[in-house]
């Protein structure tokens, strides 16, 4: 079906069929130009009113902005054209007309609010700066997948409709599952761990997670994309190494393949792959550093979670990606292993961008008895998790892993203000459609 020539591939001296959106019409009197846009870029089409077929010229001039046109003709050199070539048409066909009134201006000349943009995402992504974000997101995920393969991981897909939740703190979305109540999964945590005892050993998943966060914030979605990793015979330090590899792999892929998109976003000059060896600071050191900045009203103490202002103060102080390790066991989930030398300290870690948290991970509790105890301590009924705990009785090796929010990765990589800019159709407190 698609035997057209892309705008930026059109070579002078050839005849070509170009198809794309009518970006702009410039009518100068005796001569007029149509600017067509496709996924590669733009190309000029020349209309000479007195010399060309009247009906064809009329079709071109009558077409509304953003209509899809197909133009066939000769490609010629033209210095004054934006790309140095233009098409001298032999035929112009309207493939799909656009209404004269558009709900938002894809040329970007007229600003639109975020709601209008999200309501009309199809038109919004026609803007080069918005399209660039999603091209970069795609490249980043390709880099992530390639890096996981380098780490000898197998890509898995686990259920999103589940019987039980795991991440206390954030709420679950219930769904009706025939006669039973079920939930949308908050995390592939338990399923990826179940695969550690299988012959796969090292797995990753890139998939949706659902969290009934009550409040709209610039950093939370109700449906997000989680990049998850889990590896047998790994401890927290190994998992942190893998985390660094994956994040750097995403940046490297973008640096290698998205030069034009970074240019479009005005980031080409500043874009750097984070240096290997992200600093690892303990939770205790983090508290001291935050307290020393004076950015938080009350002095933070052992056991306190880090508030957003606390995270921001520390991020500014550190100034690059970094890990926070050795968290108090009491504020990390039950499936994270405590340190062998001190049960009040967990092997859990977070990986932070100076702006916010990107990753949570740790070594997992793989000993059946300790695991069941952990459930009880967290006020969860271990029996409800039998499908999970039972597998720890049949040879579950030590293992570690983490989860990385894909939207937060893109948001911080491109310095976007709002996480909604990094997802096509965000789900938040107000937004369920489109
Ligand atoms: P936060 O404290 O920032 O709300 P969290 O600690 O509850 O996040 P985790 O359960 O640790 O989140 O999930 C691992 C990662 O998944 C987070 O570091 C983040 O990158 C991403 N993530 C979690 N919840 C959301 C969400 N609601 N929207 C977007 N990304 C999320
Ligand atoms: Mg976390």
UniProtKB/TrEMBL annotation:
Positions of the Aminoacyl-transfer RNA synthetases class-II family profile domain: 134-434
Record's keyword terms, sorted: Aminoacyl-tRNA synthetase, ATP-binding, Cytoplasm, Ligase, Magnesium, Metal-binding, Nucleotide-binding, Protein biosynthesis
A GO molecular function held by the record: magnesium ion binding
UniProt key word Transmembrane: no
Cofactor requirement: Mg(2+)
Span list, region Aspartate: 189-192
Job description of the protein: Aspartyl-tRNA synthetase with relaxed tRNA specificity since it is able to aspartylate not only its cognate tRNA(Asp) but also tRNA(Asn). Reaction proceeds in two steps: L-aspartate is first activated by ATP to form Asp-AMP and then transferred to the acceptor end of tRNA(Asp/Asn).
Gene from which this protein is expressed: aspS
PROSITE patterns in UniProt: AA_TRNA_LIGASE_II (PS50862)
Cellular compartments per GO CC: aminoacyl-tRNA synthetase multienzyme complex; cytosol
UniProt protein name: Aspartate--tRNA(Asp/Asn) ligase
Residues engaged in binding Mg(2+) 3: 357
GO aspect biological process, one term: aspartyl-tRNA aminoacylation
